Amino acid sequence: MSTDYQQAREALGVRLRELRLSAPGGRLTGAQLAERQGWHKSKVSRLENGRQTPTADDLRAWAEATGQPDTYDELLARLRGFESHIRSWRRQLASGHRPVQDTHLTAHADATLFRGWETSMIFGILQTPDYARHIFTRYADLQRTPRDTEDAVRSRMRRQEALYDPAKRFYLLLWEPALHTLVCPPAVLAAQLDRLAGTIGLDTVELGIIPLSASVRIPPATAFWLYDDRQVIVENWHAELWIDDPTSVDTYLRTWATLRQSAVYGADAQNVIARARRAISPR
């Protein structure tokens, strides 16, 4: 996956390798560095090749182990520069929506535990093709980007295969207004709600809905996804934020857990969906 985030992580890895090879006491092998820190020997390789994001403690240990403790501030600044990486829609959508969908397809393939919160539309992973088609079209118009709607829809549908993978679990929260938002024709929304109701009961999915009548402990604000409780993806109008620093991830975990307290499940969730379905008058 070639992204600015990954490129920055790889650049940090190159810098770490430079420090290891230029240690004042003589160049260190990866095995020697790992032994000094009590790490598994593969960790050095993963960090240097940009396959793992280091923690601040990892960087401090690296700087000290290579005899160059004064480089810690530089390394930390590099890390902080991409921990909360902003991926602008203008850049991401330059070639259309499919590349973005393929990026998320890769991220989904690598994770097994998902928590989601959505306020204004149905989760992509639960969308019907017709509903997804209207979403992509509306956003292409807004962002003034190329239309590759059918390719994007196909990529999104492939992502839904994960719902039937017994190794994965999806814990999803929807705010009730998402069931009523007419971002598509009423008939399309009606079919989408039927599809949504059908996901209740899947052994890989726990779908909770927060009714408008529910008492909430915090305002139902920006939508987000949590992957393996290690990374958060937040969508804004201008960009996606890919966040993996532990403090921020913990904030989103607490947010999700707080919202969950107001959700209804099972038959009660089915009733909320059915109420929205009855309110639709296809024409």
List the helices and strands and how they pair.
Layout: H1 4-21, H2 30-37, H3 41-48, H4 56-65, H5 72-83, E1 84-88, H6 89-92, H7 98-110, E2 113-118, H8 129-143, H9 149-159, E3 169-175, H10 186-199, E4 205-210, E5 224-227, E6 231-235, E7 239-243, H11 246-260, H12 266-278
Helix pairs in contact: 1-5, 2-3, 4-5, 7-9, 8-9, 10-12
- The CATH homologous superfamily of the largest domain corresponds to Endonuclease Chain A
Distance between the termini: 43 Å
CATH topology assignment of the largest domain: Endonuclease, Chain A
**What percentage of residues falls in helices of 4 or more residues?**
40-55%
How large, in whole angstroms, is the Cα Rg?
22 Å
The CATH architecture of the largest domain can be named as 2-Layer Sandwich
Total helix count? 12
Q: Could you give a short account of the major beta sheet?
A: 7 strands, mixed
Q: Provide the structure class.
A: alpha/beta
**SSE sequence, one letter per element:** HHHHHEHHEHHEHEEEEHH
Strand line-up across the major sheet: 1-7-6-5-2-3-4
List the uncertain runs.
Answer: none
How many β-strand runs? 7
The CATH class designation of the largest domain is Alpha Beta
Overall morphology: elongated
% residues in beta strands:
5-15%
Mean pLDDT: 91
Count of individual domains: 2
Walk me through what this model shows:
This protein is an alpha/beta fold. It folds into 2 domains: 4-82, 434 Repressor (Amino-terminal Domain); 96-278, Endonuclease Chain A (Endonuclease, Chain A, 2-Layer Sandwich), CATH 3.30.870. Helices cover 50% and strands 13% of the residues. The protein has 12 helices and 7 strands. A 7-stranded mixed β-sheet has the order 1-7-6-5-2-3-4. Helix 2 (30-37) crosses helix 3. The chain is elongated, with a radius of gyration of 22 Å. The model has no long low-confidence stretch (mean pLDDT 91).
